[in-house]
Amino acid sequence: MNPVFADLPTTVFETMSRLARQHGAVNLGQGFPEDPGPLDVRRRAAEAVLDGSNQYPPMMGLPELREAVAHHYRRFQGLALSADDVMVTSGATEALAGALLALIEPGDEVVLFQPMYDAYLPLVRRAGGVPRFVTLTPPHWDFTDADLAAAFSPRTRVVLFNSPLNPSGTVFPRAALERLARFCVAHDAVALCDEVWEHIVFDGGRHVPMMAVPGMAERTVKVGSAGKIFGLTGWKVGFVVAPPPLMRVLSRAHQFLTFTTPPNLQSAVAFGLGKPEADFDAMRADLQRSRDRLADGLAQRGFAVLPTAGTYFLNVDLAPLGIADDVAFCQALVADHGVAVVPVSAFYARDAVRSVVRFCFAKSDATLDAALERLEGVARHAT
C-alpha cells in the first residue's frame, strides 16, 4: 500500500463528526451550511436531469458553463478571460489534485501555508513533491519577506496558496499577494491558488485574485468552487482557470482522474453564475449576520474570538483561558457539553498553534443558539 495514504490518521472532521453523533452534540465542526441552497439553481438542476442530456459531457466541461465561469470572473474580478481558459472539475479538491500531479515531478518543492486545508499535504506528497512550510499564527495570520525567503529555494516549483484562508478566515490584502508574487516571479514558480471562498468575504471587503497581480497571469492556476459559491457542497462542481500552456497539461491530468462532471449540475451552475449581483450580496449578508451572532454570543460567554474576514468559520483563542491543548478541549467539549468544534492544530503539519479552535457559523439561528446555550459557563469554569 502507498504509505502516503496508508499511514494517514483519521481526519479531524470524521473524528469530531463521529463524536458529535455519539454524544448527540450540536455540530459546528464540519463546514457545510444547513440551508439547502438557492431554489432556482436547484430547480435548474432538476429540470436539466429530466429534459437535458445525461450522457458524457465534454471532458473540459459544458461550453455554457465554461463561458459562464469566464464571464463571471470578468464581471466580479475584472479578469480578462475566455471559455478557453476554463476547465470544469468534479470539485475543487479534484482540481487541486490534478494540478499537483500535472505541475510537479518527484523532488520538486511546494510551498505550503499552514494552517492549511487537510488535503494539501497528502496530495503534494502523493505527487512526489517536497513540502516547504510558511507558518502563520494568530491573531493576524500574516507572513513576511523573511518567512517566504526561508521557504523558497531553487527547487521551488509550485506555491499552493489559499485565500480566503480556511481555517483562519483570513482574506489576504493585495500587499500580501504582491509580496508572494515577487517570490513566484523570482523563482519561476507557479501559484496554485485555492480561491473557493472568493465570494464569502465580509465587512465590505473584496477578494483579490492572484491572477490579477502584475506578473502572475501567466503563472497562476485559479481554482473555484460552485459548492462554496452557492452553498451546495455536495454537488462537487469545481472550475480551473489557467493560461493555455498550463491548461494543456492540467487537462491531461484531469482526463485520467474524473474525466467529467454531471451535466445537469454543470448546467445549473452556469445559470447560477449569471444571477444578479444582489443575490451574491444577500448570501454574504446572511452569512455575516450568522458570523456576528455566533461571535457576539461567544464573546458574551467569555471566549476570545479572533477576527474573521471570510469563509464559514471563526476561531476562538483559548490561551487567555489558560488552555494550551486544543484537541483535549474539543474532546471534552463534545463529551461534556454537547458541542462539536475542530482543533486548529489539526491543520498544521508541524510547529502547530495549539490554543485555537474553529467554529462553523454557516448554520441556522436555532443551531447557533443551541450551541451557545450549551457553552454557557464553559469559559468561566476553565479559568
UniProtKB/TrEMBL annotation:
SUPFAM superfamilies: PLP-dependent transferases. Residues 26-375 form the Aminotransferase class I/classII large domain. Keywords: Aminotransferase, Pyridoxal phosphate, Transferase. One of its GO terms (molecular function) is pyridoxal phosphate binding. InterPro entries: Aminotransferase_I/II_large (IPR004839), Kynurenine-oxoglutarate_AT (IPR051326), PyrdxlP-dep_Trfase (IPR015424), PyrdxlP-dep_Trfase_major (IPR015421), PyrdxlP-dep_Trfase_small (IPR015422). Belongs to the class-I pyridoxal-phosphate-dependent aminotransferase family. Homodimer. This is aspartate transaminase. It comes from Lichenibacterium ramalinae.
